[in-house]
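Work Package 3 committed the consortium to producing structural models of liganded targets before the mid-term review. Because experimental data for this complex are still outstanding, the team generated a predictive model from sequence and the ligand definition alone, so that downstream docking and mutagenesis planning could proceed in parallel. The input record is reproduced below exactly as it was submitted to the modelling pipeline, together with the SMILES string for zinc ion.
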Amino acid sequence: MSRSKKLFKLQKIDTAIDTAHKRISDIESILADDEELKRAQKKEKNTRLELEEKKKILQRAEREVRDQERKIAQNKEKLYSGKITNPKELEDLQLEAESLERYLAVLEERQLEAMIVVDQYQTAHKEALEALRKVKENRKKLHVELNQEKSKLENDIEALKAERKNALEGIPEEDLELYEGLRQTLGGIAVAKTNEQSCSACGTQIPSAVYQKARSASQLTNCKTCQRILHAE
Ligand SMILES: [Zn+2]
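The resulting structure, written out as C-alpha cells with the ligand in place, is given here.
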C-alpha cells in the first residue's frame, strides 16, 4: 500500500470519528436545551394564576348577589309581616325594596360577566395544560431516540478506534507527524484525494509532475494551494 493510501485510510477513519463526536456534541446540546419546556411550564403557570384570580372575582360577585338576596328577603319579611302599619314607613320600605331589586340586577350582571371571563380563562388554561403535556411527551420521545443514537455513536467510535489502531501500523512516524500537524491546521482534513487531476479539497488543478508523485507508492506530495497531502488511486 502506498504511503498516501495508508494516510488516506487513516483520514477516512478520523473523519468518521470526528463526525461521530460532532453529532454527540450536537445531541448533548439538544438534550440540555429545555427552553421549550420552560416556556410551556411558564405559560401553564401564568394561565393557572390568572384563572385563580378570575375565580376569586367570580366568588366575590356570587357572594354579593347572595348578600343582596338576603337583604331583599329581610325587606320583604318586614314589608309583609303586618307589624308595620305606618304608611310613611311602609312607603320607605317599598322604595327600599325597589332600590334593592335594581341593585340586585346590577350585581347579577356583574356575576354573569365574571362567569364568562372565568370560562375564557378556563379554556386558556386548558389549552396551556394540553400544550405542556404535548411538549413533555415529545421531549420524552426525542430524548429516548437521541440517547439511543448517542450510545450507538459511542459504540461506533470504539470500533473506529480499533480500526484506527490497525490503520496506524506501517505508517512511518514522520508521515504520521505530518498528517497530525496538517489535521490540526486544516480543519481535520489532512489528506485529499485527487479528482481527475485536481485536488478534491480545494479544486486546484494539479500539475502533471505533482500528480505523478501523488500516484507514487514511495513518495508524499501535497497540494500547493491547500497544503493537503494528495492521494491518487
Ligand atoms: Zn488542495
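Reviewers should note the following from the model. The mean pLDDT is 96. These observations will guide the Year 2 experiments.
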